[in-house]
Amino acid sequence: MALFLMLISGLLLGKIAWQDFRERAVSVWLLGLLTVTELLKGYARATTEYLLWQSVRNATIIFSLLAIVWIYLIVKNRKWMNLFNKGFGSADLILLLTLGINLSPMIFVFFMLTGFILALSITLVFQQFSASCEPTIPLAGYLSVWAIFVMILAVVFPQYPPDDDGWLILVLNVLQ
After folding, report:
1. Exposed end of the chain (fewer CB within 10 Å): N or C?
2. Cα separation, 12 vs 127, whole angstroms
3. What's this model's pTM, rounded to 2 decimal places?
């Protein structure tokens, strides 16, 4: 059942990436289906309390980062601004909240940071070498592709589950 739900999640993430790369917009239905699938994946392996606690912690991380960016932009521009009108789409937020359901907070932060760095790097390379590249970053698309890659790693290396920080802490300690 878990592998089937992972396959469904992968297909939905692929469709989300395709839509975001082509249209710079993502269907609400796809995001809703992905959320339901991620919740089912979570319920198959953990208790409701654990999933709720993990989701709340990851949502707090997301909203804290968004608040810092929003305050920075207000101070920098010296005027009130809506963060979702420029630069950050609601699909990006919903996708991050959905992907945070099944990741431990430490792995979620690692996933977000590496995903943001990859998205920014790839977009800068495309903008450098393509005259027709849009100035926006399809963040939901890049994060979807990155999430598919992480899911493939979780299948290939089942001893390193994405909801357990232990292996990441071990790797970080070895790198020090």
Report:
1. C
2. 27
3. 0.88
Which residue ranges make up each domain of the chain?
2-175
Query: How far apart are the C-alpha atoms of 116 and 109, rounded to whole Å?
Result: 10
Torsion-angle region of 24 (φ positive above 0: left; ψ -120 to 50: alpha; else: beta): left
* pLDDT level of residue 168 (50, 70, 90 thresholds): confident
Give CA–CA dist 166/24, Å, rounded. 36
CB contact at 8 A, 13 and 148: yes
- Say which residues have a Cβ less than 8 Å from residue 41's Cβ, sequence separation at least 6: 2, 5, 6, 9, 101, 102
Q: Which residues lie closer than 8 Å to 91 by C-beta, 6 or more apart?
A: 16, 20, 25, 26, 31, 140
